[in-house]
Amino acid sequence: MADVKVVVPGDVIDTHTEEDDAVLRLGPGLTQHAGKVSAVAAGVLHASPDTNHFWVVGNKRRYVPAEGEPVVGVVLGRHGEGYRVDIGSAHDALLPLLAFEGATRRNKPNLVVGATVYARVSVANEMMDPELECFNSHTGKSEGYGELTHGFTFKCSLGLARRLLSAKAPVLSALGEQVPFEAAVGVNGRVWVNAGTPEKTILVVNAIKNSEYLDTKQSKQMVRELLGKQ
Amino acid sequence: MVAETEPSNIETQFLLDALQRGHRTDGRGIYDYRTLKITGGSTSGLVTVQLGQTRVLARVSCTVTRPYPDRPTEGIVQFNAEMSSLCAPHVDHTMRSQEVTVTRMLERVLRQSRAIDTEALCIVAGHKVWTLRVDVHILDDAGNLVDAAAIAAICALRRFRRPDVTVDGETAVIHDVRDRNPVPLSIHHTPVCVSFAFFGAGELMVIDPSLLEEQARVSWFTVTLNAHKEVCALNKAGGVALTHEQIKRCVQVAVAKVEEINEKIQEAVNA
User: Fold this and answer.
1) Of A12, A70, B133, B185, which residue is 20 to 30 A from A61 by alpha carbon distance?
2) Residue B1, pLDDT above cutoff 60
3) Residue A50 to residues A36, A38, A47, A227, B257: CA-CA distances in angstroms?
4) A153 chain-B contacts, CB cut-off 8 A
5) Where are the beta strands (DSSP E) in B66-190?
6) B17 touches chain A (CB under 8 A)
7) What distance in Å separates residue B31's CA from the closest CA in chain A?
8) How far does B152 lie from chain A, in Å, by closest CA?
């Protein structure tokens, strides 16, 4: 296995290259100050020497919204022309009433307090509260976004959520071979699962939670054991 | 999100549906405790307890002070529970109610049940007594802080060693720990808390509630027992009324659980 370099905030990174006028690209978790590059996030340092790109991959549980990301949120209340939604970030997000498929002034959605929605972050910057939308604003179609009913939601770390979304998580395919279920993964560390019955749903939820530190072979083994106990 | 939010409708509905079929959301049985792990620290009087994902740290320290005027021959024991933003995203320095609940429970369980022999903490009657301070830091809140904090506090007290004292009339010499071995406290018995949560109209019960179960409960009940199967305290603060039979059943279940928990405590204390 290649040398894994773990950094903590404050560590100075050596980004020296042979080409003097190469452009240095700093990804998330790094900052440049007084000619030195230092880490501001804790995690593993990744480097791509061809493109001179450095970034830190860390795992945490507190979400910082970024535009375009899918999130699972809980409706806190209705606020004028939209809903106030909790997505786990420092500030609650705003979901406009018209940001749903087929919504017009006369045909508005009716979400109750405590409803769960799968939405896309449409606006996220340091100066404003984040905003969400439950449809693709270009096509007007819902594309899977909208209210989630039945099933169960649980919280996981941001790293696991990203792995689940990127289809690099073997646990989902291992489970899918045996148990039919649907899932909606939010990069804010919240996952919705519906497998029909409470027993099956609990099984899927626990399998996903257990798979955080397991590799492919171990995940498959864990799923087999869990299903065997049924 | 700054304020603590209620769980979503899906979560509460699923929890009730699953419980009605005898399942809990984390796959446990109704009467199952989460894995309990007690670790002693590098100094005496420092103990970390892990109950599932809930983590609590207890630290015992002592100083010499004057006694209370109305109790000249008794030492003083103070309890303090603290939560920081480390344990949950909604906690900040203004959220005091959980800390107060845990502190009050510790006071009831350890001080009012006379688990600690305060007369043995007296050095010179009326002038000098030991003041013990039990600080409980909540590192991670995943439900059932009370049970975890109580186990941490009693383990820390039993592992704690105070400096040895020689009394000659009115003068007392407190020996440095390097000169004379520090001595243990006088603990009469080891109380352990067992908490239950109720749902629906009060007919569904679970033991050792997780965070979601705590948020969705309609009633909460804690039984405190010691190893001699004596009930030290029953605590029910608000919520739906419980019947006589439910209380008796809870106490019976608690008796069985206390035996298991006590084994772990003995291991940790004698380690």
Assistant:
1) A12
2) no
3) 21, 20, 9, 45, 60
4) 8, 10-11
5) 76-83, 122-124, 128-140, 161-162, 165-168, 171-174, 183-184
6) yes
7) 17
8) 26
| Total count of residues recorded for chain B | 271
Contacts (Cβ under 8 Å, ≥6 apart) of A96 = A81, A82, A131, A133
How much is the ipTM here? 0.83
Which of B10, B15, B35, B215 to probe the A interface (max A CBs under 10 A)? Answer: B10
Closest approach of chain B CAs to the CA of A117, in angstroms? 10
- Structure confidence by residue, pLDDT tens digits, B126-142: 999 999 999 999 998 88
* Mean predicted confidence (pLDDT) in B211-230: 91
Instruction: Tell me whether residues A74 and B8 touch, CB distance under 8 A.
Output: yes
Mutate to test the interface with A, among B13, B14, B35 (most CBs of A within 10 A): B14
- DSSP run (H or E) holding B252: helix B244-270
Per-residue pLDDT, averaged over B62-89, amounts to: 88
pLDDT digits (tens, 9 = 90+) for B102-158: 999 999 999 888 899 999 999 998 999 999 999 999 998 888 999 999 999 999 999
